[in-house]
Amino acid sequence: MADTISAERRSWNMSRIRGRDTGPELRLRSLLHRAGFRFRLHAKDLPGKPDIVLPKYHTVIFVHGCFWHRHKGCRNATTPSTRAEFWQAKFDGNVDRDNRNRAALETAGWTVMTVWECELKADADRIVQQLSIEIREAA
User: Fold this and answer.
1) Domains parsed from the chain with CATH numbers
2) Is residue 77 a contact partner of residue 67, using CB atoms and an 8 Å limit?
3) What's the first-to-final CA gap in the chain, in angstroms?
4) Residue 104 — φ and ψ, nearest 5°?
5) pLDDT band for position 122 (cuts 50, 70, 90)
6) Nearest-CA neighbor of 58 among 107, 111, 103?
7) Is-contact 36 129, C-beta < 8 A?
8) Rg (CA), the chain
9) pLDDT tens-digit series, residues 75-86
10) 70 phi and psi, to 5 degrees?
11) Hey, which of 4, 92, 107, 111 would disulfide with 59, CB 3.0 to 4.6 Å?
């Protein structure tokens, strides 16, 4: 299906998409803080600048959008029908970068966790409970 809005409007929409302080990220940070965890944000000294860094537990958390990071099996991980080659290259690059960053962090001794946008929307409280258990077990 072709795009239903103008190229200028699409460009404007895409320019508003941010890489940090996204809605899902803010929600997870709030819930983790309420659960008693203290953390750093977007540590520039770590590969991939993880969204949430829990130094006490030597754990990092990435909050991934399903569309941009290609959540397997998720209905939100659609591929635009126009400029399919461009988008596929973009998505492949994102996934490759995510894998490299994960491997570098794990090699450095960090526990790496990923929270997907759709999972957080579906049941945030369950995600935080699960994360709390995994974070404490990793310590």
Assistant:
1) 22-138 (3.40.960.10)
2) yes
3) 48
4) -65, -40
5) very high
6) 111
7) no
8) 16
9) 988 888 888 899
10) 60, 60
11) 111
